[in-house]
Amino acid sequence: MVWAHSASYDLINWFGLDHALVPSEPFDAISCWSGSATILPGDKPVILYTGIDANYNQVQNLANPKNESDPLLVEWVKYSRNPLMTPPDGVKGDNFRDPTTAWQGPDGTWKVVIGSYSNNQGMAILYQSQDFVHWTMHRDPLYSSSKTEMWECPDFFPVSINSTNGVDTSVENPSVRHVMKASFNSHDYYIVGTYVTEQERFLPDADFTGTSSDLRFDYGKFYASKSFFDGKKNRRILCAWVNESDSMEDDLKKGWSGLQSIPRKIWLDRNGKQLVQWPVEELNSLRDNEVYVYGKQLESGSVFEVSGITASQADIEIMFELPKLEEVEFIDTSLVDPQLICDKQDASVTGKFGPFGLLALATKDLTEQTAIFFRVFRDHKDYKVLMCSDQKRSSLRNELDKTTYGAFIDIDPQREMVSLRTLIDHSIIESFGGKGRSVITTRVYPKLAINDEAHLFAFNNGSLSVRVSRLNAWSMNKAQITAGGNPKLYPRISRGRSKEHDPLFRSVDTRFCSDHFYNKTGPLGVYWVLKLGFLIRFVYLDFESNSLWLDLLLLLYTF
């Protein structure tokens, strides 16, 4: 594996550069794995990454930019005294990886977390340093849980209590809470709590449970995520790997394997219990050909087509009003798994309030369709809104993964409308329910509903009518990518300006090949060719900036 390298002004359009890190030394002889970038005092970016050494042990290494005045940070130099951290006693050599972005305490001490597993507990091992070179392991993990497996790609960051704005990773004060994220069991789980700096302990409001009630960034295909703080726009941005579930043979036929989610802004919900996610505002620049519907009644069994847009490449926002809530069905949410409900009561099964929602990437006759829908229930105390993404009829091809996903959304339908934003990009559908309180990302490969043959519908298969208060939909234009990093092609990049005025690029790491590129791997790595899709999807983001300008650096982490 290597760290490939691309850059962007807007997280949407990208151009490629030379690889940043490749296996070359005893401490990364086998592979250069995941890691994170940190900005040191003086706006100096550094990378901590996991190397697989000649003995197949996972060790943590440091890399510095060869030329800090280069706005693209094209070349990186590995520290001569690597590795800086090796597996401690009690930790196997293959259970020690993925350093986070480091944060600095009030006393100047740098701290970083490494994902691990020991004594039947997944954990975030804490290391401390005064100079970012000599690291000492803290006597206790920052946090550990017996309910989890090996922690991959951990993330630890503060979120504001009173604002949707993001905060720098090193912020520690009463106005923030902290989020601990760990990747395991094919999903990204997180807990919210308090960081007690005096004890170097994270105290969550509740531990992981190992059940469907655990909070996730995304309830579909979404793994190995990484967040970063954008200091220019005061936001925290999240991206993750969206993997495949089909055979290697099928991946070879498609010409790609996996992609990256659309970048999302994340913040703490007003209830203080969970995070909210929403696509970054830059994505709106690709919107075109808006169509809208207001105040449309959806009677039981009704379906209507959203025409006038490119349904294979679209952005849709829809809001539903629900009358007669007193007639909803009862459910005991403490005894049920939302994904199992969505699977057993799919889009074809009539309930009272629901299923209602969207049919994406559908044929005209609905032979193929991917349903993103809601059902509304009532338990002993409250109304419960279930969000589902049903792939059972997504393709006439039989060999594909057609898993159905589901999650409850923490909203009260008496006080707010049930809302959905869905991004459709040929073979990926990202759906944000309840204004981003629950998100489901899926991969689908229709046989017939492709390109101009794809259609979009709103539907209601419940026995009670619902009302579409508002529907806005847009075709999405294609983003641009350019292979190679010739500065002449990008006049906004000036190597002659002073460092204070240069575009401030920072580093990010990623993995796997984009859905929207053909991937040709040769002896020097990966070469990209634009295929389809409105977003140039990058792969596994690791990034931190204290003063982000208009420009971002991406280090693609690829096979």
Automatic annotation (TrEMBL):
Record domain Glycosyl hydrolase family 32 C-terminal: where: 283-475
Which terms in the Gene Ontology molecular function aspect does this entry carry? hydrolase activity, hydrolyzing O-glycosyl compounds
Alphabetized, the UniProt keywords read: Glycosidase, Hydrolase
Q: GO:BP terms for this protein?
A: carbohydrate metabolic process
InterPro entries, A to Z: ConA-like_dom_sf, Fructan_Metab_Enzymes, Glyco_hydro_32, Glyco_hydro_32_C, Glyco_hydro_32_N, Glyco_hydro_beta-prop_sf
The protein's superkingdom reads: Eukaryota
Q: Boundaries of each Glycosyl hydrolase family 32 N-terminal domain copy?
A: 1-279
Q: Which family does it belong to?
A: Belongs to the glycosyl hydrolase 32 family.
What this protein is called in its record is Glycosyl hydrolase family 32 N-terminal domain-containing protein
High-level lineage = Eukaryota, Viridiplantae, Streptophyta, Embryophyta, Tracheophyta
